[in-house]
Amino acid sequence: MKLTTAQALVRWLLAQRSETLDGREVPLFPGVFAIFGHGNVLGMGTALEEHRDEFPVWRGHTEQGMALAAVGYAKATHRRQVGVVTSSIGPGALNMVTAAGVAHANRLPVLLLPGDTFTSRAPDPVLQQVEHFNDPTATVNDAFRAVSRYFDRITRPEQLIATLPQVARILTDPAECGPVTLALPQDVQVETYDFPEALFEPVTHRLLRSRPDRRALTEAAAALRASRRPLLVLGGGVRYSGAGKTAIEFAERHGIPITETTAGRTLVPHDHALHAGPLGVTGSTSANVLATDADVVLAVGTRLQDFTTASWTVFSPDVRLVTLNAARFDAVKHGALAVVGDADAGLTDLAAQLESWRVDAGWTSRAATERARWDAHIDSLRTATEVPTYAQVVGVVNDLSEPRDYVMTASGGMPGELIGGWRGTGPGTMDVEYGFSCMGYELAGAWGAAMAHTEGLVTTMLGDGSYLMLNSELFSAAFAGHPFVAVVCDNRGYAVIARLQQGQGGKPFNNFYADCRTEHAQPPRVDFAAHAESLGCLAFTATSLDDVRGAYAKAREAALAERRPAVVVVSTQPDAWTEAGAWWEVGVAEHASGRAEYDRVKPTQVRYLKA
């Protein structure tokens, strides 16, 4: 059939289906986020308008924001659905690069369709084109190469026939999943070609469950049988495999304590007897103590990021690391005994090899014992003070949340509070974007999550700095009718970085407003509630913990009733944090007071583990 490049691309998107973790068939691409400009309105814009009744198009207000919304959508659907984002050329395209970085770091799928300059070069230089004196083929879209799993520039319509299967492969592959960028020159978008009708036949993409090599399984089983103190670490790959139940059953069968990474949070019910808590810098002392004592660590579906491993100081230097991962890239890290395969299939096969083997009950029971100590610590942090703390605000939200609700954050001090202090209310109900830790994801990503997570209410938690960094999609969500609650903790600056700065011996500088340059004796302040209302949101304010409880309860009810975001603004303490006592490596100058601790801990860092 004769179609333009843009028409063919839209028809192909509509033909792709996906099977969810519970077996339902849904569109792989449920909709498109779009901001039109001269580089995409006549090509992609026209093609999308032709299918406006069957293919939802949501208007964003910053390209970065709507692309982050697409990322949040993918996370909330456990990577079983993919957001599509189209922009014009130049600044509109470049605005999406940060969002691509978020998706890349977190192994999340998103399809980015930036407009591009003319392949014919006839009208060059066109509006918003950057000219490279020595390479006329280079455009600003080449910036996406560093943050894309798959990048292509479509210079002929028929190239879609070869590239679209690769697009689907990357977006749905458990090992290679990540952002895909198809740069679309504006002249090529409207060029026509006689495409084969078979290209537009429906295709259902099901989760690939590759089974591990039996020899690797045998070695892994032998390592576990030889252990006395094994520890199970569950990461995001367990979530995306739908393997949470299998992982818990594996741990129960063999008596192995369980810890979670950032991406694996809420996989295990908080009160489960084997749940030792979250691991690492932003985790819990309970999990970290067990990690230090473990002689074998079975890490499933995790890339073992520095916050999880406390910059590789949380484990004993003599530990044996066994990894089960769909991506061989992650499985072979740090000299691990690598088992490459799907988390669900791999744990099932490993359990069969272990048969009735079980850990000594004394080690098994330590999970509950240590976590009880951590829970008592969190309880003490949640006790009300005159000015609320992050931990207290998290406690209120936690207490009032339902099992199907969804909580999220990304940057500043809030990740440590949610990862370490949240008590899971339901499986896979947390999104802490701490791979790229992108300020502003909290609000933009919440828009996407609210679209996808319709079985419960989405609550996003953030600081005043993140709110100011990117808030345009509050209006997008309000306009579109997607409700969520945003809890904004105002501590008057970039408090967590001030903590790092001063904690290592630096002087207060350029983080809290009180330490920033201004020409005013009394600088202006932001009225966050008024600002949120001006963007079409409901707004509530709180100064005490009782206020927080009342405001959050009202915000939940109002957001759902009026189908728009509700923002709760809380004045919080700037220097009270939940801490797990783990080390994090940052660059510390020799003259800084924090250098002594750096020199003490650095030699204990594990660089490569024994086989």
Q: Which descriptors apply to this entry?
A:
37% helix; single chain; 611 residues; alpha/beta; six-stranded parallel β-sheet; 24 helices
Task: Provide a concise account of the structure shown.
This protein has 611 residues and is of the alpha/beta class. The protein contains 24 helices and 23 strands.
Oligomeric composition of the shown chains: single chain
Overall pLDDT:
97
Strand order of the largest sheet: 5-4-6-7-9-8
Structural class: alpha/beta
Uncertain runs with pLDDT below 50, 5 residues or more?
A: none
Q: What is the number of beta strands?
A: 23
Radius of gyration, in angstroms, nearest whole number: 25 Å
Report the principal-axis shape: globular
Proportion of β residues?
15-25%
Task: Give the termini distance in whole angstroms.
Answer: 57 Å
Give the % helix. Answer: 25-40%
Q: Report on the biggest sheet.
A: 6 strands, parallel
Number of helices: 24
